[in-house]
Amino acid sequence: MENEEEVVKERRREEEKKKKKKRRRRRRRRRKKKEEEEEEEEEEEEEKRREEEEEDKKKEKEEKKEEREERRRRRRRRRRRRKKEEREEEEEEEKKKKKKKKKKEGRRRRRRVGGCYCYIYIVARYHARAIYTVEVSLRQQQDGSHTRYGQTLAITVGLFIFLWTPFQELLEIVCY
């Protein structure tokens, strides 16, 4: 009897041992599974982070490129504007120069005083006063040749009116 009981006890012990082993194995497996799942999740999270970082870097690069392009565009626009302004200024200066030349040349009037011709140029007008330059060209009656004098006189309107009548004397003074 005792032997049978001992045999039964031993069987139970062995069965319990087996059960314990199984439990341990299950626990280990579960732990391993959990750990593996956690590791996988961590790896996935890390991959996501990496992808996000890469996307962020790409975005930053694109933004930098866009900023550079915008700067280049602005610079080009500024250069174009400057060039246009410079061209316009140069054109205006050329126009002014042409106008000035025209003003210097002015309107040419030819008047005959005695045996002499005088060319009168209106140079500039300041309100009521117009300034005339008088260029004298003389014809000597003996030769028939012209002698031109580069002497010019700046005359206002009033003086011109005053001087016109005794202009022959002035010409004679210049001539002789």
TrEMBL record:
Basic and acidic residues: compositionally biased ranges: 1-17, 47-70
Biased composition (Acidic residues): 36-46
Signal peptide (from-to): none
Region (Disordered): 1-107
Gene3D superfamilies: Rhodopsin 7-helix transmembrane proteins
Bias kind Basic residues: ranges: 18-33, 71-84, 96-107
Origin superkingdom: Eukaryota
Name of the protein: Uncharacterized protein
Organism: Laodelphax striatellus
